[in-house]
Backbone:
């Protein structure tokens, strides 16, 4: 897409007389993916080079550490609502599960960011279980609320201005680019008409031109370290941009679920994909309508996939004892499925009101020390038949 404040302010081509209407010099900042052959964005700044006055190393980034006191090959239920988290969007996060492709964290900020942040290691996809606010970046302001997926691409400077509601987010740090599934696109790159969402369902920042912001601090996460850059100018002094890399929001309620005559595999609810990670959305929908159909998922073992399910709202056909904020993790090769009795009891059910996000991870996940306080020690018992 291309954003322009007024005719003539932004040149038609980069590097050709980058001047404003009064002859003042413009500067551009190019953000590229996959070198210069991949998607990119060019931000056009007012009359100054992209420079900072000071750079310091704050501390090591709190990378997730694998738990040593508990088995890593066990079905687990994490009650993430019990984790005591305070602070801004960086400090109020707890990494729970991780592998080389993704870090799964719970984020519960209770105050707005007093700095800008740039994650140079990963795209970050947030699912907003509760709360909302405004994502502020050089691309403009993006309003978000409960039920939204919010994508912040790698290396995009941003901060969160929070609303008054209590915040509860799921964070997925993805070490490769997040994309729609290839089968959702036609050969021109458009979303197909039978895709589970349309281009109109994705909201982009509202660009209002240069803004005089007094916050001049940018924190940059890179290779297990957090750096602090101090600027002597506003990071929002942008008059326009050419962009294919920018933040966006998508409501899970806009996802169009698939319904089957008999039970559909979870991949029928695929929503986004990154290298080694498939993200699925479970939303309210009609259940299987074949005579005598069994809507509950069947017991199974995923041999090459770790399954993670984040429960956001509603009731779940296959399981009781989980609630909003619960995360279940079923490692590869470990049998799992509905609780005893739930499989049979699901016969005749016509619809579900569940709201959940699922991850299929190709590489084995590890549990972190930060997750142990939320661990439900009785979860294994839920798979045993009552005597």
Residues:
């Amino acid at each position: 897409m291309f954003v322009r404040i007024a005719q003539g302010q932004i040149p038609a081509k980069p590097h050709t007389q980058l001047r404003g209407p009064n002859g003042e010099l413009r500067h551009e900042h190019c953000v590229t993916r996959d070198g210069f052959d991949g998607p990119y964005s060019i931000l056009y700044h007012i009359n100054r080079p992209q420079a900072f006055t000071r750079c310091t190393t704050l501390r090591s980034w709190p990378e997730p550490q694998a738990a040593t006191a508990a088995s890593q090959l066990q079905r687990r239920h994490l009650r993430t609502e019990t984790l005591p988290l305070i602070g801004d969007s960086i400090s109020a996060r707890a990494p729970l599960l991780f592998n080389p492709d993704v870090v799964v964290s719970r984020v519960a900020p209770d105050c707005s960011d007093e700095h800008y942040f740039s994650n140079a290691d990963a795209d970050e996809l947030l699912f907003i279980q509760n709360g909302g606010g405004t994502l502020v970046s050089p691309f403009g302001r993006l309003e978000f609320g409960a039920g939204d997926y919010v994508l912040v691409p790698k290396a995009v400077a941003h901060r969160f201005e929070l609303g008054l509601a209590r915040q509860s987010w799921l964070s997925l740090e993805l070490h490769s680019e997040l994309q729609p599934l290839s089968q959702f696109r036609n050969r021109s790159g458009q979303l197909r008409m039978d895709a589970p969402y349309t281009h109109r369902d994705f909201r982009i920042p509202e660009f209002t031109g240069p803004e005089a912001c007094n916050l001049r601090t940018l924190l940059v996460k890179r290779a297990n370290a957090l750096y602090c850059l101090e600027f002597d100018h506003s990071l929002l002094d942008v008059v326009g941009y050419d962009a294919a890399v920018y933040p966006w929001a998508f409501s899970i309620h806009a996802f169009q679920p698939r319904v089957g005559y008999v039970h559909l595999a979870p991949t029928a609810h695929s929503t986004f994909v990154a290298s080694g990670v498939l993200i699925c959305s479970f939303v309210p929908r009609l259940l299987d309508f074949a005579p005598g159909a069994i809507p509950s998922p069947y017991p199974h073992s995923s041999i090459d996939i770790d399954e993670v399910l984040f429960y956001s709202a509603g009731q779940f056909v296959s399981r009781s004892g989980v609630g909003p904020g619960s995360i279940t993790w079923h490692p590869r090769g470990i049998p799992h499925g509905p609780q005893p009795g739930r499989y049979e009891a699901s016969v005749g059910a016509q619809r579900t009101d569940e709201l959940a996000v699922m991850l299929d991870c190709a590489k084995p996940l590890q549990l972190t020390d930060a997750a142990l306080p939320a661990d439900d020690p009785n979860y294994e018992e839920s798979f045993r038949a009552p005597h």
Notes: The longest strand covers residues 123-130. The two ends are 62 Å apart (CA to CA).
